[in-house]
Amino acid sequence: MNCVKNLFILVFFLGFSSTTVAQTLSRSQSGGNDFWRKVRFGGSIGLNFGNGYFAGSIAPSAIYPINEYFSAGAGLNFSYIKDNRYKATVYGGSVLGIVTPIPQVQLSAEFEQLRVNREIEYYDATVNDDFWHPALFLGAGYNTGPVTIGVRYNVLYNDDKSIYGSAFMPFVRIYF
Length: 176
Fold this sequence. Notes:
about 180 residues, alpha+beta, Porin, 2 domains, 8 strands, about 20% helix, about 60% strand, signal
């Protein structure tokens, strides 16, 4: 529960500070509120199925360009997985920082906190497991405008506890 409290405080202060910066910039530059005109929206959708297996996910996100080199944002995540003996619902959020040292290269850091509710059927018993799962991804990608393709690494990955199959994960980011 302490982790949830800390995540809430972090998201609150990030949201407050970006709103304050945006209001200061918009008042001094244009006299109006152009914060929302600069916000870029994007995310991902995933679908995988076959022979008794189904996995679907949706992860909308938004970023705000602080300057030409740095953007910050937040995202939501929802996934559902069902197999013959396994069912999981995963939901949560993330905060994201992106650095673009040159237009073609994008470096990122993302903290993700997910709630996992899963049900596993063993031979004669069903086990229900509910827990919070943190992940801290450091990534690098090739940027082509609205699309970035790259790989990220979960520095908190634990082979025995992670909900991900590997510490390395490819990604495709699209922001409009």
